[in-house]
Amino acid sequence: MSAPLTSSELLSVVASRELASRRKVFAGIGLPTLAAELAHLTVAPDIEVVYESGVCGAHPSRLPETIADAVLVTDAEAVIPMPMLFGCVLQGGHIDVGFLGAAQIDRWGSLNTSVIGDWGSPSVRLPGSGGGVEVMANAREVFVVMRRHNPRSFTGELDFCTTPGPDRALAEGIRPLGTGVTRVITELGILAREGVGEELRLVAVHPGVTVDRVRAATGWDLRVAGTVEEVPPPTWDELRLLREDVDPDRVYLR
């Protein structure tokens, strides 16, 4: 008997499908890595995965545990210095999708990965930006995977803005190259926006999830698309690949 579907598996499969028409992906460690590797085996065989450590066209023999994991170098298309990665690849506009995670997101797609609570005395201190700011500003678009969909994570006001989306950056007189967050994949469904000037809106829900439930779990008055689709559940083939080929050691699957 197959094991029950987990939240990590659901998010990874749904996120992987969003990469169907994309080529160059800047992937964060964790769920973005799972999604990119699964997409390579399914909907995007020609995908080129880039990591913050300077590895381009990664083909690891197993899942990397960090961006500095030596397994990323094996069979990679190129390994370049980080200044070249950020200065030429990212700022040169060569990344189709930046794949990020976050602790908090607001209606415009700005992210918090720094602190929960007051900056001077936070209840939780988080890893910070890493390359998130550069990815947000320079990738053509950004996908975000969120493990939790509740009013604390989907908040009307970020506790701290680590990674400003284009709307917030423009308000400060900064014009980013990319369009910012266009897709947010959560345990309840998918939120989307086309670009600058648009709020995130609900475009799809998972089976058994209602629009009212998603709106109640969001910390702002969430807009809803005229037609809300139902996300097809993961197929057995997708789950088999994810469990047996992508992450058999359960590095990131929970």
The ordered H/E elements are HEHEEEHEEEEEHEHEEEHEH
- The computed structural class is alpha/beta
**Terminus-to-terminus distance:** 18 Å
The low-confidence parts are: none
Query: How does the major sheet shape up?
Result: 8 strands, mixed
Strand content: 15-25%
- β-strand number: 14
**Helicity range:** 10-25%
- Round the Cα radius of gyration to an integer and report it: 17 Å
Question: What coarse outline follows from CA principal-axis ratios?
Answer: globular
Q: Average the pLDDT over all residues and give the rounded result.
A: 93
Report the total helices.
7
Q: How is the largest sheet built, in terms of strand order? A: 2-1-5-10-11-12-13-14
Descriptive account of the structure:
It is a single chain. This protein is α/β, with parallel strands linked by helices. Helices cover 24% and strands 21% of the residues. It has an 8-stranded mixed beta sheet, with helices on both faces. It has a two-stranded antiparallel ribbon with strand order 3-4. A hairpin with an 8-residue loop joins strand 12 and strand 13. The chain starts with 6 loop residues before the first helix and ends in an 8-residue tail after the last helix.
